Amino acid sequence: MTLRIPFDNTYAALPGQFHSKLPPQAVKAPRLVAFNEDLARTLGITPGDSAEMAEMFGGNRVPDGADPLAQLYSGHQFGTYNPQLGDGRAILLGETVGTDGKRRDIQLKGSGRTPYSRGGDGRAWLGPVLREYVVSEAMHALGIPTTRALAAAETGETVWREGGLPGAVLTRVAASHLRVGTFQVFAARGDKASLRQLTDYAVARHYPGAEGPMGLLSAVRDAQAELIAAWMAVGFIHGVMNTDNFSISGETIDYGPCAFMDVYHPHTVFSSIDRGRRYAYANQPSIAVWNLAQLATALIQQLDDPQDGVAQATEIVHAMPDRTEAAWLARFRAKLGITSAREGDLELVTALLQLMAENQCDFTNTFRALAEGTARDQFTGPAAFDAWAEGWQARLEGEPDPQAVMRRANPAFIPRNHRIEDMIAGAVAGDYTLFHRLNDVLARPYDDQPEHADLQRAPLPEEVVQATFCGT
Ligand code: AMP
Ligand code: MG
């Protein structure tokens, strides 16, 4: 059978200033190591034989109908503006409209140098490719908007990082790869015409009801407020919330040094390069506001007089914290089994989180145990939990089915960092058993799967991963 991808490309039809057209760079010996059949079905893709798919997803052959290109963007990295980034190691093959009617990008990541590579080699190594595969698919199964993974291929080449490592290419699927940085680059150049064109494109593609730049800004704010709240509710730390990794569609994008927290602490950071703790767990809501402000600054540059947009844009941005908090509280209420809203709920949630931090509770297991009635075992000082639980039980009176609500809001399984590291070590040694097992188990994160209790367990002290590295 021949691989067939029903491309329907729109970004490639935008004028030349938005991208550079070029194919992926061929690799030595492509080998397909993962292919997401469910996702392929949704996208209307007909799979081919594995040799052919290795050629396509390794970047050696451009599939029919693709119009490969690297996208231009810029962005603030750790708060400092970088005027030109762009796809330095990714190639957008094109778009498909799935059986669900949704348009999505299909992109190869790790596919070789482009005009935007700067000093980089354009490649990715196997570890981050498999991490992104597992974590993004887990995120999807958790019900959180995210890019997805269609395929992973080893390249048969060595990539040089701290030492020599096996190279790989990820095939990433996204609602689009538009980001704050896509707007910033044209704003910085004072190119109003391109900004207007990009705004129209983003509105038509993602928020057809929105009107003009301010409508787009509000829509991105609302989508991102929901997204950040969803991350917080599962203990996810993105790790590099730079404006080039902040999507217009409101999907989680760019799984670099990301991780799910084990022990709860609001200041948790994983990224080895985030020395200022800018992207710590608890900072994510305010960083999102900062990123939205950068989008606002870029969007108003398309007005004849940008000053005319300042007041309205400021109002839209300033409304974000309240929106994030409302979404956050709705999610944490559900984590406690609560479906209604009452005065005092915020205090109930924050009191529990405070106790969890003091007692070094595992974030995921403690919330899951609430539904099972075993949460007190998670606390080094159970008496403190008992006192809190009295108020909680009183609050639950009249709630129809708190257990069921909690079981839908509190996953049993998350991609734990130490398991991801084990999985990568296995794959580097040629053993993909844990990779496949993680994908299977994490596809049903809210189900009890007692036969996989080892994947639910918090890491032992010697298993704890202290940092994830950006050497992607
Ligand atoms: P990221 O940290 O993945 O969001 O990437 C930030 C920027 O660096 C983007 O413009 C990437 O395309 C670029 N980049 C990251 N790694 C490489 C690499 N190995 N080769 C070329 N460009 C890269
Ligand atoms: Mg990025």
Short summary:
One of its GO terms (molecular function) is ATP binding. ATP binds at residues 86, 88-89, 109, 121-122, 172, 179, 254. With 472 residues, the chain is α+β, with helices and mostly antiparallel strands.
Structural class: alpha+beta
- Which of globular, elongated, flat, extended, rod-shaped describes the shape? globular
Ligands in the model, by name, code or SMILES, are: adenosine monophosphate, magnesium ion
Count structural domains: 2
Distance between the termini: 34 Å
DSSP strand count: 12
Q: Count every helix, treating DSSP H or I runs of 4 or more residues as helices.
A: 15
Gyration radius over CA: 22 Å
User: What is the H-and-E element order?
Assistant: EEHHEEEEEEHEEHHHEEHHHHHHHHH
Helix content: 40-55%
Q: Which residue ranges are poorly predicted, with pLDDT under 50 across at least 5 consecutive positions?
A: none
Hey, roughly how much beta strand do the residues contain?
5-15%
Mean pLDDT across every amino acid position: 97
Taking the sheet with the most strands, its summary is: 6 strands, antiparallel
Binding site for ATP: 86, 88-89, 109, 121-122, 172, 179, 254
Enzyme class: transferase
Active site: 244 (proton acceptor)
Binding site for Mg(2+): 245, 254
